Amino acid sequence: MDYSEKVMDHFANPRNCRKMEDANGVGTVGNPTCGDLMTIYIKVEDDVIQDISFQTFGCGAAIATSSMITEIAVGKTLEEALKISRNDVAEELDGLPPIKMHCSNLAADGLQAAIENYYENNQ
Amino acid sequence: MYLDNSATTQVSEEVFNEMEPYFTQEFGNPSTLYKIGRESKKALDLARQRVADAINAKPEEIFFTSGGSESDNLAIKGIAFKLAKKGKHIITTNIEHPAVKNTLGFLESLDFKVTYLPVYEDGLIKIEDLKEAITDETILITVMHANNEIGTVQPIEEIGKIAREKKIKFHTDAVQSFGKIEVDVEKLNVDLLSLSSHKINGPKGVGALYIKKGTRVVPLIHGGGQEKGIRSGTENVPGIVGFGKACELASQQLEQHYEKLSSIRDELIEKVLATIPEAYLNGDRENRLPNLVNFRFKAIEGESLILLLDAKGYQASTGSACSSNTLEASPVLTALGLDPVDVHGSLRISLAPESDEFDVDEFVNVIEESVSRLREMSPLWNQELDYDGVMCKKHDDCRLC
Ligand SMILES: Cc1ncc(COP(=O)(O)O)c(C=O)c1O
Ligand code: FES
Are B211 and B86 members of one domain? Predict the structure, then answer.
C-alpha cells in the first residue's frame, strides 16, 4: 500500500489508543468480516469533547484514521464534532489510497456513533 | 530480511552471469542459420536439456513460455480446445492459483463444466471426492502440486494414477513445488506440468510447460512456428538460458536445501505456536513445502502486521482482504473453512535457502511483539464485543457486505 508519511506516522505511533473506562459515549462501526472494526470512546462535559480514545481492529489506514480523528475532535463541541467528515480525516492524513477511502476510513462514522450514544445516554 | 520467496526470488549470481552474454554479444535469433544464430540455438538446446533433466523428462517434451501463468493457460485451454469434441468436463480444486482458476472461469463462459473439489481443514483434497467427480465427459484434471499460500502438497501421484486408468489428461501446476521438493514427471504420472523460473532464483517472465510425448494441445499463440508450433514468437534467449541454469542449480542443491529449510521451518512453527497465544498453523503440518508456513493470529488484521514487520526489516505477506487489490479475502484460506475474521489475521512466511543469517528466535520475538501490540489496540481481543449488532450499520457504501 502506498501510504503517506502521516498515515504511517499515525499507524506506527497511534494517539489515544486505549479503552476508556469512564467514557460517557461509545460508538462501534465497521465489520470485522471486511477487516475493519473501530470503537470510539468520548468523555463529554458541557457539550465539549474533553477526552477521546479508540480501539481498532484493521489495516494501517483504519488505525491511522482512528488515531487522527482523536486529534481532530478533542476540545471540539459536539456540534462541531458532528461536522467532521470522512474527507476531513483523509485530508488531514495527506490522503489515503483510493481503495481505502471507503472501507477503512470509518473514523468519522465511529465518532458520530459515539456522539449519538452520548445523546441517548443523556436524554 | 526477505521472507516472501513464494512471491518471487532473487536472481542468483551464477544465473545472472550465464545470461549476460545473451543480451549483448550473443544476440542472434535462434531460428537463423549463421553462426550467431546457431550459438543462440545451442544455448536454447542446453537450457531445454537442463529443464528436462530437472524433472526427469525428455528435452522434446519441454516447451518454453513466458512463465507459470502462460504455462497454465496453455495446458488448460490447449487440452480443452483439443478435446472439446470428446467432452467438456474439467476437474480442479478450490485452491488453485488464479492462473488456473481464472482460465477455468473463462472456459466456463464457453460452456465447459468445471468441478471444484473442496479441500478440507488441512488444505488437502480427498481422493474419494475426485473419484466421484469423474464422468464420461471428463477430459482434464488439473490439481496444483503445492499451494502458493499455505504450502500444502497434494497427492499428485495418486491422482495421476486414477487419471491414467480413466484415460483422462492430467495437468499439475508445479510452480511452487519445483526446486523445493522432488518433481519427477514419471513418478507423478502427469501429462502436463507448469514451471516458472522466477520462483527458483531465475529471471522473471520465463517458464516452461512439460507436455508428455503423445499429448496434443492447441497452441494459444500462433505465428512463426517456434517451439514446434506450440508457442510462436522469437525465444527469450537470455531468460531461457537463465532459467536453464537455475534448474540445474536447483536440482543439484535440492536435498541439501530441503534439509536446511525444513529444519528452520519446523523450528519456526514450533516456536511461534509455543510463544504466541491463539496462534495457529494454516494447512497440514506434514504434507507441506519445506520453505513455506502460513499462520493466523486471532483478533488482528494482517496488513497492519505486515507493516509492523516491515518496519522491523522483515518482508512477508498476508491473505487479508485489506492487503489485496480487490479487498477480497484470500479464497485459499476461505476454502479451509476459516472464519473471515481469522483469514484477516494470516501471515505467510516463505524462506530462501540462502537465508543463512535468519535468526528464528529473533524473528519470533518480533512477531510476538507486533501481534501483542496490535491486540492491545484491537477491540476484538479479550473483550466480549458483540459485533453482530454493529455490522456495517454505517457502512452502506461497502463493496463487500
Ligand atoms: C502456483 C503458482 N502458479 C502460477 C504462478 C504464476 O507464475 P508466473 O508469475 O511465472 O506467471 C505462480 C506465481 O505467481 C504460482 O505461485
Ligand atoms: S465494512 Fe465492508 S468493506 Fe469495510
Answer: yes
Please say whether the dihedral angle defined by the alpha carbons of residues B16, B18, B23 and B25, taken in this order, is positive or negative: positive
> Looking at the structure, do residues B44 and B187 belong to the same domain, yes or no?
yes
Question: At B328, which CATH number?
Answer: 3.90.1150.10
Q: Max alpha carbon distance in chain A (Å)? A: 44
Q: CA-to-CA distance for B118 and B337, rounded, in angstroms?
A: 10
Other Cβ atoms within 10 Å of B85 Cβ, number: 8
Picking from B197, B219, B252, the residue at the C-terminal end of a domain is B252
Question: Are B220 and B337 part of one and the same domain?
Answer: no
Cα–Cα distance, A96 to A94 (Å, whole number):
7
Among A3, A7, A8, A37, the residue to mutate for chain B (most B Cβ within 10 A): A37
B198/B54 same-domain check: yes
For chain A, the residues whose C-beta falls within 8 A of a C-beta of chain B are: 1, 8, 11-12, 14, 17, 19, 28-39, 55-60, 62-63, 99, 102-104, 106, 109, 112-113
Among residues B195, B225, B252, the one where a domain terminates is B252
Q: Do B380 and A32 touch (CB under 8 A)?
A: yes
The total of structural domains in chain A comes to: 1
What's the ipTM? 0.93
Number of domains chain B is built from:
2
Give the residue numbers spanning the domain of B353: 254-392
d(CA A7, CA A3): 6
Amino acid at B43: A
Q: Which of residues 286-305 of B touch A (CB under 8 A)?
A: 299-301, 303-304
C-alpha pair distances (Å), B283 with each of B151, B258, B270, B299, B338: 7, 19, 15, 19, 11
What average pLDDT does the structure give for chain B? Answer: 94
Pocket around ligand 2 at a 6 A CB cut-off: A 30-31, 34, 36, 103; B 392, 395, 398-401
Give residue A117's domain range. Answer: 5-121
User: What pLDDT digit, counting tens, does each position of A27-41 carry?
Assistant: 999 887 777 899 999
> Would residue B1 count as lying in a domain?
no
Which amino acid is it at B198?
H
Span B281-310, pLDDT tens digits: 999 999 999 999 999 999 999 999 999 999
Whether pTM exceeds 0.80: yes
DSSP code per residue over B117-144: EPP-TTS---HHHHHHH--TTEEEEE--
The amino acid present at B269, given as its one-letter code, is I
